[in-house]
Amino acid sequence: MRGAISISPSIEYLERAYDDAKYGEFSRHPYMDIIIPSMIDPGMAPPGKHVMSIFVQYAPFELNGGWNDERREAFGDTVVDTLTRFAPNLKDAIIDRLVVTPFDMQEEYGLTQGNIFQGELALHQLFFMRPAYRWADYRTPLKGYYQCGSGTHPGGGITGSSGRLAALNILRDG
Amino acid sequence: MSSAYDTIVIGAGHNGLAAAAQLAKAGQRVLVLEGRDVVGGAADTQEFYPGFKADIGAHRIGRLHPTVTRDLKPLMKRGLEFVDSDPSVFAPTLEGHHLTLWRDPEQTIDSIGQLSKSDAARWNDFSALVAKAAGLLESVYDQAPPRVTSKKIRDSWELLRVAGRLRRFGKREMMEVLRIMPMTAVELLDEWFETDVLKGALGSMGITGMFQGPMAAGTAYMFLHQHVGSNGGPRATRRVRGGMGALSSGLADIVRKRGAEIRTNAWVERILLKEGRAAGAQLVDGTEIEAERVVSNLDPKRTFIDLLDPIALDPNFARAVRNIRFRGAVARVNLALGELPSFACLPGDGPHLRGVICISPSLKYLERAFDHAKYGDFSEEPFLEALIPSLSDPGMAPEGKHAMSILVQYAPYHLREGIWDDAKREALGDKVVETLTQYAPNLESAIIGRQVLTPLDLEAVFGLTEGNIYHGEMTLDQLFFLRPVPGWSRYSTPIPGLFLCGAGTHPGGGVTAAPGCNAARCILAE
């Protein structure tokens, strides 16, 4: 309970979860990466209670018909239902919930299309191609204008690498 | 030096014949051993129904290696002929419209323009990019991949020469090609076009022969591979008049004329070793034939796992060979037709029936077709690449009748439920007919006879492991210096005197003779 709880019982489970998203629906049986921070960090919840944070795939940004309040809650229900199959008491233990869709991520955090890496980490968008060929060194076609986010090499995740490398190049430019 | 032969070539597929021709030309005493009663391997034309003939394996040829093109010249004067279809592709839909890709860009643009003005406007730029990328592949297809990790001066020099050739394409263009190569066909095509049937027809070229849907990385590479030799046009639909068998027997003639011997019905059971070196071959009847070296046209799995004593192989190498993915995805259906199919969206006879008839109305259609295969069943609505060779080649069917040859995807070699028995085979045949009849309503009633070859049949007939038409999947991790396995991409093997020359080596599958010619050159350089 103190580490990551992974709901991905098989490769086929993941593949089927993706199948739904390919055609514009959220997964009926999503993959989940779960942590319960309050287990090791009591400040996260009142005594005896807990907070569970769930990373869910797949929820396509381009949902058929678009994201709205109804679809957001339907997605939340799917997550709870799926998890309850693995932990039967879960549903009844819920006091409150917050569902953040890819659309919400775009609106609230400014992540284009809700992409958490600021651009897919695909082979053709990495290294000297990130964010674009010839502009992979944090510089841009505009002098004095730089990039330092996940959209640059080496990409997403809480690493600080993009920021540090950008700063080094900016200092070099003087 | 007591052997009667310098080289034994196992398998008279077109690559084996091409290799044998080059070795014989260099003065070697060559013996080609073929297990079947005909030469050509999967480049094979057969009467599949009384009076009807079809290319039962490969039904199109790719860009032939320049050496073979040169060798074939005298034969071209004596009747060997390649037929380039125009249009190269006709893609019908169920919504009443269709698409035709012609060799003349203006005609293609005209066809696309009836569906989308913006797609039509982008066709020439797209074709230029594809031509550039395919040209880049072509420039590295005619020789062995360079040794990328070697520190020897000779190898570095070769690597530099390859790099130099790539540089000629211009830095920016090269980067663009490098960018698109690992992409998915969907990503590539979505960057350019909006019309479903255009993307569907082009996307099908990215999945041909692959156990992958168009949303899988590397399918853009297969799309480019299919365009090698197309010279800026859409993928060429090129056939051999009289069928593939005419090309195979032409190659066999060259081999014999150069003094080499071809034995059919000579099934090799074992590669003979002497002090760790390949020293000949043993046939199923027990005959042992000695030679200085052995060149295998079979795929790497059959060559190393089936024909060699396991003790002779380094376990790490054997493991790498066992890890090569095959996973055949193709079935072949040949139909004997009493009349031409008439498509609902473009009824009657016309030039559109002369190229590839491509049933792939959208990328989503292809992806859904793959979904079934992914979970071990054949596609509910398969992708079909159909040809009617008898239209331009009357010898393929009785007068007034026609032979249609269809490549079907996806038909997975590994079924989740059941096996490829007669019932399953016929169920697949029915599915193909049912699908095609949706587009051409008279098709079903026009059928006089049919032949269905499942991936299991392709394995049994041609010896293709798991029915893979490329002798191993052509995915990014199994290409160039990684083909057939890392470290052994230059046609030699860990067994001294044993070489590979089939499609399992660089540059892979298709009727190109490139692996055979490249292998012969490496062997002669030793």
Q: Could you describe the 3D structure shown?
A:
The complex is a heterodimer of chains A (174) and B (526). The N and C termini of chain A lie far apart (50 Å). A 3-stranded antiparallel beta sheet of chain A has the order 1-2-3. Chain A has 174 residues and is mainly α. Chain A contains 5 helices and 3 strands. In chain A, 32% of the residues lie in helices and 7% in strands. The longest helix of chain A has 18 residues, at 69-86. Chain B is α/β, with parallel strands linked by helices. Helix content of chain B is 37%, strand content 18%. Chain B contains 17 helices and 18 strands. In chain B, the strands form 4 sheets. In chain B, strands 1, 2, 9, 10, 11, 12 and 18 form a 7-stranded mixed beta sheet that branches. Chain B has a 7-stranded mixed beta sheet with strand order 7-6-14-15-16-13-17, sandwiched between helices. Chain B has a two-stranded antiparallel sheet with strand order 3-4. Chain B is globular, with a radius of gyration of 22 Å. Chain A binds chain B through residues 12, 15, 19, 22-23, 122-124, 129, 133-134, and chain B through 172, 175-176, 178-183, 187, 215, 217, 364, 367, 371, 374-375.
Topology of this protein?
The complex is a heterodimer of chains A (174) and B (526).
Chain A: E1 5-7, H1 11-22, E2 31-35, E3 53-57, H2 69-86, H3 90-93, H4 102-109, H5 161-173
Chain B: E1 5-10, H1 14-25, E2 30-33, E3 45-49, E4 52-55, H2 66-77, E5 82-84, E6 89-92, E7 98-101, H3 105-113, H4 117-141, H5 153-167, H6 171-180, H7 185-192, H8 196-207, H9 219-227, E8 238-240, H10 244-257, E9 261-263, E10 268-274, E11 277-283, E12 288-296, H11 300-306, H12 315-322, E13 330-337, E14 356-359, H13 363-374, E15 383-387, E16 402-409, H14 422-439, H15 443-446, E17 447-453, H16 455-462, E18 498-500, H17 514-525
Parallel strand pairs in B: 1-2, 1-12, 2-9, 6-14, 12-18
Antiparallel strand pairs in B: 3-4, 5-8, 6-7, 10-11, 11-12, 13-16, 13-17, 14-15, 15-16
Helix pairs in contact in B: 1-10, 1-17, 3-4, 4-6, 4-9, 7-8, 7-9, 8-9, 8-13
